[in-house]
Amino acid sequence: MNQTLTTIFALTVACVTGTAQAQDVRGDAKAGASKVAMCIGCHGIQGYQASFPEVHKVPMISGQGAGYIAASLVAYQKGERKHPTMRSIANSLTEQDIADVSAFYENQVAPSTATKPAREPSVQVAELLKRGACISCHGDNFAKPIDPSYPKVAGQHADYLYVALKSYKIDKNPQVGRTNGVMAGIAQQFTNQELKQLADYIGRLDGDLKTVPQAKFR
User: Fold this and answer.
1) Which of the four pLDDT bands, split at 50, 70 and 90, describes residue 18?
2) With contact defined as beta carbons under 8 Å apart, do 67 and 149 qualify?
3) Distance CA 159, CA 148 (A)
4) Using an 8 Å Cβ cutoff, are 184 and 169 in contact?
């Protein structure tokens, strides 16, 4: 087992334990529908773009796994993700709110059954995917993560993926960056150009992620 896979395995064990604890609070998708007013202004508008820390499309979260959405919001609360707006929003949520909102977004899109990307990577991108052991965490078609707290990434906006991947390389910046033992180690292996190649490929894949406009934006 190479060093990357060894690190992933060790941190996955810890992550599974944490996820099991988080699942003690059960989400109610119906209750979540009444708690997403602060989310839909960005995540409920197709093609909406953020300008911090650089211009990129706001990530699609409809169809994303509830465990990942919950883990992300908790990471903002803890300061492990340093986006000021998202941290402010996350800090306003209780554990039950997070569970309900996460269940709501997971249930908006039925998961696909695809197990293999319809689009094959180039030889160069295939080598990058192998180096990062990407499928070992994000699963079949990059949409069947091995742990609920890991994201589906197939079909996510490529520009967002690129910004997110770069953020794991940022250290000691109070406003920008992400702290994650697995992803930081993986992202550091790549140049920004290589991260962009990965993001562009994964963003072109068919996946579960969608932007589902809410009633006030339709």
Assistant:
1) very low
2) yes
3) 24
4) yes
